[in-house]
Hints:
- By secondary structure, the protein is mainly β.
- 7% of the residues lie in helices and 41% in strands.
- It contains two helices and 37 strands.
- A hairpin with a 6-residue loop joins β27 and β28.
- The protein is globular.
- Residues 16-65, 123-139 and 187-193 have low confidence and may be disordered.
Amino acid sequence: MVQRLQQLAALFAACALLLLLWIAFSPGKDPAAHDRAGPVPATAQPSPLPQASLPPGFAATAVMSGDIERGGTLLFKCRAALCIVSTTGEQLTTIEPQPGGEYLAPRWSPDGNVFAALYLPHGARSHSEGETRGSGSATAGELIVFSAAGEPIASLIPQKPSMQDRSALLVWSPDGQRLVLSARPDRNGDHLLDQAAQMWVLEFSSAEKALSQLDSFQGGVPGPPLWSPDGRMLAYVRHGVTGGDSEIWVYDVEARQARLAAVGSDPAWIPGTNRLAFVAVGGAELRTVDRSGKREHTLLTIQKIADFLTLDDPSLPQARLSFARPTWSPDGSRLAFRVWGQPVERGSSYIPGMLFTSAADGNDLRRWPDTDTANTSPQLWSPAGDHLIYPYWLIGQDRFTPGRTTPEPGERFTYPCAAGLILVDLKRNSYREEACGSIGIDLQSYGAWSPSGRAFATRSGSAIVLFSVDFPPQRRIFAAPQPREIQWRPDPLMQ
């Protein structure tokens, strides 16, 4: 009898172990099962950020902790200064400007050994607590390269026209040897908001610790110039020379020449190629073209999106739709893009801003929770391309219903918060909300992926929030003085 009971107990334990293993490693529902129904939430009840009382300035106080990405380093703009801090909220270094000055657009080099930032004589002096290191004799419109510890090692004042634009953008080339600076010029103290941006191409020598200017040319509409995967070309958008449709131009850094590649907007280099995806025909098509302007190919049409929506969301009123902001996964296997629209008939229901992903050939369309307003930053792919994150900001009538987690009849998605982040898991065909109701949504940078792609850093008021992509997620929160433009230091071992 005892032996029989022991056998039954062993059998029960084995079954329990198999059940636990199945739960832990089950891939979830087959994504193909959601082709009509669309993606499913990872959780029925999102977890909003805790409303903690944070001390002023930078107290490096952990409000909530988790064992996530403890060895990382964050760089961000804090008031008018720059701050460097570990991902545990410790080891703070503050780089303060001269009185009345301001640092902008901090960016790590691709290998994480240095970072660059812009200095402008606008804005107030930062009063952050902690270790303070001056940057030397920074002057108006100066580009400065710092060591990873925050020591200035090289600087350069771009040649005229002088750069005095708080919306200036700075982008490293893939090999970290060049930078491009895009800003509107300043003439007699006036910011020329209606003028094309000026582009400065700069070279950084890590051996000589020196910056030099290679070229300067008039670029296009304000927006980030895009390096080609091989670091030889820069793509940018400019107004049509005859005042018509926008045009995509490609600048050859070696030859120092620019040429028209396509008529359209929103270019995005396809990883590992010399081709661009872009929005064409007034938003009616997504096309690809090579950098010389040849071999143009239609990838997706807005009619295909309309046919998809007829099945996916029958309650959506007829609308004039258009594509916007395509971005590629790092391996080039998937594409994410926005779709915006206006009702065909006056008085019709609100048309939300939508976000889709597709395979590289335009098939396998999936619609994810809506971004809603157009005034949100672009979606960001994780380094491995298995996750996607983007902000949403609800402005449509009755779009925000606190506490409700299930869509009502006629609704495609439901939102428990008015604003936040959507984290998409492409492998499991699922998503969840993060930074629920606590994130300021605008066209500025809202966060950065960790080098491993297993965590994301964002801001919430006067705090930095780290959360893992795992479910249930781990989170860490620590105080920071008005954090903006958060940058996670790259890990050379993962390059």
